[in-house]
C-alpha cells in the first residue's frame, strides 16, 4: 500500500513542497495529494500590483502539476483530525457536503489571511490584498473612483511591508487618486537610517500623505476613525494591519502558539503529532535568536525547504539535513521602478547599509520571476530513479478509509 502524503494549501510553499516530494520520492511507494480552495496558483507577493490595476496572469494548478504524479483536490479544508489521520474538506464543485481525506503524512501550508483585530467596520467596509478575490474587489473599487473623475481618497492602514507596497503601488499606478497611509508608529522605523530616508523621499515623490502615530479604531463607508477621534476621509480603506492564521490548526488539537501557528521542532515537525509538518506562515518555527520567525516570504522559503527535506529523510530512512532557520531581511517594492533591500543581523536589527532604488526594484523583480518559474516547473530535474521508502513505512492499516 502506498504512503499517503497530503499537502494542504498550494501557495508558494505548498507547490514547492509537493513538487520536491514528487521529484525525490518513488511513485511506487507514495501518493501525493494537494488540497487547495482555488484552481489557480496565486502570486500573493504581487497582489498589490493586481489591485493597483496591473495584469497578472494566473496559472492553473492542474497545468503546474501535469506529469508530476501529484493529485489536486480543489476543495476548502474545514477540519483536520490528527488523531485519526484525516482531513475534512468541501469540494469546490461537489455536493457541498464534507468529505474525508486520509493521510499518513500531512504537510500544513494553509498560510494566513488578513487580521481585522476586531476593529469595527473592517470586515464590512475595508479592502485588502491578502487574496486574489479581495485584491480584485479593491481593483474594481479603484476603477470606479477613477471613472467618477473626482479624485477619490484611498487610506492604507498599516506601516508594514504590505501597507508600504500597497500605498506606493496604488499611488504610482493611479496618480489621480489621493493616497494616505496610517502608521501606528514612525514610518520605516525598523529600517536603517539611509533606507528610512529613501522611503520617505519615495512617499513624497508619489504624493502619499503619512499619518504617523495613528491607530485606526473604526472603519466606515467613507472614512476611518482614529483612536483620538480624528476622522480620515476614505473612499477605499485598505486594511494592511497584520495577518492571522486560520483557526483550523488550533481546533484540530495540534499544539499551537498563542497566534494559532503550529508549534514545530527544527525539522518543521509538529511537536505534538509526528505525522504532521508545517511550513510558511502556518508554522511557529524558532529562529537562532530564540524568537519565532515572522510571517514573510523569506521565512516560507526556509521552512518549506526544511519540511520537504525532513519528510524525505524520515520516509526513506536517511539523515535529515538541517537548514539554518534564519531571518535575513526583506525586499520592499516602491512601485515598479523603486525599492529597498534591507538586511538584518542575528537580532533582526537593520544593518547599516541597504540597496535602494532601481537596483533593489530589479532584484526583487528577479526574485519574483525566479519564484514563479520554480512554481511553474515543480519537478525540474526529476531524477529517473527516485528514492524508495524505508521498510515498514507503507500505509498504516489502522487509518480510516475514505
UniProtKB/TrEMBL annotation:
<keyword id="KW-0274">FAD</keyword>
<dbReference type="InterPro" id="IPR051169">
    <property type="entry name" value="NADH-Q_oxidoreductase"/>
</dbReference>
<keyword id="KW-0285">Flavoprotein</keyword>
<dbReference type="InterPro" id="IPR036188">
    <property type="entry name" value="FAD/NAD-bd_sf"/>
</dbReference>
<protein>
    <submittedName>
        <fullName>Oxidoreductase</fullName>
    </submittedName>
</protein>
<comment type="similarity">
    <text>Belongs to the NADH dehydrogenase family.</text>
</comment>
<dbReference type="GO" id="GO:0019646">
    <property type="term" value="P:aerobic electron transport chain"/>
</dbReference>
<dbReference type="Pfam" id="PF07992">
    <property type="entry name" value="Pyr_redox_2"/>
</dbReference>
<keyword id="KW-0560">Oxidoreductase</keyword>
<feature type="domain" description="FAD/NAD(P)-binding">
    <location>
        <begin position="4"/>
        <end position="291"/>
    </location>
</feature>
<dbReference type="InterPro" id="IPR023753">
    <property type="entry name" value="FAD/NAD-binding_dom"/>
</dbReference>
<dbReference type="GO" id="GO:0003955">
    <property type="term" value="F:NAD(P)H dehydrogenase (quinone) activity"/>
</dbReference>
